[in-house]
Specification:
Blueprint lengths: L15 E6 L3 H11 L5 E4 L15 E2 L3 H5 L3 H17 L5 E10 L6 H15 L5 E4 H7 L8 E11 L2 H14 L3 E3 L2 E8 L4 E7 L5 E11 L15 E12 L8 E5 L6 E7 L2 E5 L3 E2 L12 H14 L12 E10 L15 E5 L2 E5 L6 H11 L5 H9 L28 H10 L5 H8 L2 H4 L5 H6 L1 H8 L3 H18 L2
Parallel strand pairs: 1-2, 1-10, 2-7, 4-12, 10-18
Antiparallel strand pairs: 3-6, 4-6, 5-6, 8-9, 9-10, 11-14, 11-15, 11-16, 12-13, 13-14, 17-18
Helix pairs in contact: 1-6, 1-8, 8-9, 10-14
The structure holds flavin-adenine dinucleotide.
């Protein structure tokens, strides 16, 4: 298990084979695959685990129909195989889920085009799950959907997860395989010495500076990769935002792919942990990269416009939005000045000055991305790479998390965050701040109308006792949390 946050001084002087920089899904995957090879691995995360893009995705573990539409059969097949693997190996966390693609008179793609695409999609995954739903059946299933010219819908399955819990779960497995993982540890500089690398780190909890040395370094810092890569910039940061709406106002049981009335872009409307989520947008992210990303008001308006258009009887306005969430896609730039949605979404691995950098890709394909990075770093050879790609099981060690923590009805609601669960989270998952607990260990902050502030007030004594916070620290944490919600999740 991840366990308590180690004292950084314990890390100094140890002989690390590999330091992984970045505690999103990519870094977690690299740490897992490397530790399972018997390497001595240290993972360092500047903020909290999954603080970056990996807690802000559309929560889909998917092949990506758009990749197939773009003719990228290899990427689609790879993603679908990984989807099936995650469904098998993490059944409590990754769930098969129905997606509906409504078809209207004259809409593109029509029923035939979708049938052909989904036949190929299912074939690549080795399943047969797609089918046509008549307009009548669709009206019963989705009574709020706009009826005009509705012909029916293509139904198919993909999978859905809780992305930040997925990162934590992979980190638990990495730790069980021997990796050491530390959050709030910013790598400021990487120096190459004769036989090893020297990493200059600042502990973000107490401000202390220290150094560790390692044989190899993999820079898995997502949208921030260019800051440590030693090479010319590769990433085009693209922001994608979501809004969370009360399920009472917009109840959905399936996920819908709906064309936006302004530009035809597909937008998802899906049920998640008891609320309805709508997203995403796709914009060049030009805000300060050191600031947490937030959904700009024009993005919120854009998503509400889609809802009003697709579900005309639903009366919604800005005040109904429970919360927003924005993430920055680390898209490898083509350098051709394409529109954001035309840029390819696959990952890249490159080396410069001995540092291997990896960025781009998807949540779904983290295992393949990790193997590519390990091969580029010379930590596995071609033969091992081929074997590992085909290995039947990814997760070698058993890891037990409290019942319900990762299920959709679990600890995401305030009443499920009991004293016992809180103690477990503090002992096993290194929450340092209140926002770690309420935005990434659980989702109370995203999913409750008050962002969990009421729960915090009611449970002040418990929080202070379990986290050993005095009055002053508790008050500082509450203020910090209020600010974060107001500025980045409102
Ligand atoms: C809106 C949106 C929707 C998406 N939807 C999906 C989806 O449905 N399905 C899917 O498969 N994929 C999806 N993706 C893609 C997926 O979320 C990302 O590809 C993936 O999360 C990237 O993970 P990462 O670990 O590379 O980056 P991140 O999760 O950003 O992790 C990088 C980490 O590095 C840390 N870091 C930065 N600098 C330093 C430093 N100096 N020292 C230490 N640590 C540092 C950061 O704090 C961060 O936590 C989506 C992306 C977006 C933006």
């Amino acid at each position: 298990m991840i366990g308590l946050r180690p004292d950084p001084q314990q890390l100094v002087g140890q002989a690390w084979d590999l330091v992984v920089v970045g505690g999103g899904i990519t870094g977690a995957g690299v740490a897992l695959m490397a530790a399972q090879q018997g390497l001595r691995v240290l993972l360092l995360e500047k903020q909290d685990y999954a603080w970056g893009t990996s807690s802000r995705s559309s929560k889909m573990v998917h092949g990506g129909l758009r990749y197939l539409a773009q003719g990228d059969v290899r990427l689609t097949r790879e993603s679908l195989q990984e989807r099936e693997r995650l469904l098998r190996e993490l059944p409590d966390l990754v769930h098969r889920h129905t997606y509906l693609f409504p078809v209207r008179k004259g809409s593109f793609p029509g029923r035939l085009g979708l049938s052909v695409a989904l036949m190929g999609y299912d074939f690549l995954a080795g399943i047969r799950d797609h089918r046509w739903i008549s307009a009548r059946a669709l009206r019963q299933r989705a009574p709020l959907l706009k009826l005009k010219q509705l012909r029916g819908a293509m139904s198919y399955t993909d999978a859905v997860t809780d992305d930040s819990r997925l990162v934590l779960r992979i980190l638990h497995h990495a730790a069980a395989a021997g990796a050491t993982v530390v959050n709030y540890s910013a790598v400021q500089r990487i120096e190459r010495a004769a036989q090893h690398f020297q990493l200059h780190i600042q502990d973000q909890v107490n401000g202390a500076n220290y150094q560790v040395s390692s044989q190899k370094v993999i820079n898995a810092t997502g949208a921030w990769v260019d800051q440590l890569s030693n090479s010319s910039p590769r990433v085009r940061p693209l922001r994608g935002s979501h809004i969370f709406l009360p399920a009472e106002l917009l109840p959905v049981t399936d996920s819908y792919t709906l064309p936006h009335p302004d530009d035809g872009r597909p937008v998802f409307v899906f049920p998640w942990h008891g609320v309805t989520c709508v997203g995403t947008t796709d914009h060049d992210h030009t805000d300060d990269p050191q600031q947490e990303a937030y959904a700009h008001e024009h993005e919120v308006r854009y998503l509400l416009t889609l809802v009003r258009h697709a579900f005309p009887s639903v009366q919604l306005d800005r005040s109904d939005v429970i919360s927003t969430m924005a993430g920055v896609r680390p898209v490898i730039s083509s350098g051709k000045g394409l529109k954001p949605s035309q840029e390819r979404r696959d990952h890249a691995v490159w080396e410069s000055g001995g540092v291997v950098s990896v960025s781009g890709g998807k949540l779904t394909t983290f295992r393949i991305i990790a193997l590519d990075a390990l091969k580029a770093a010379g930590l596995i050879d071609e033969r091992q790479y081929r074997q590992l790609r085909k290995q039947p099981r990814m997760l070698a060690n058993a890891v037990t998390v409290p019942a319900g923590l990762e299920s959709p009805a679990g600890a995401v609601s305030a009443e499920h965050l009991t004293a016992t669960l809180l103690r477990w989270l503090v002992a096993q998952e290194q929450p340092v701040h209140l926002d770690d607990l309420l935005l990434r260990r659980t989702r109370i902050g995203n999913l409750t109308a008050d962002g969990g502030r009421g729960w915090v007030r009611t449970n002040q004594a418990l929080l202070q006792q379990v986290l050993a916070w005095d009055e002053e620290r508790f008050s500082a944490e509450s203020n910090r949390y209020d600010q974060i919600l107001k500025l980045y999740y409102n």
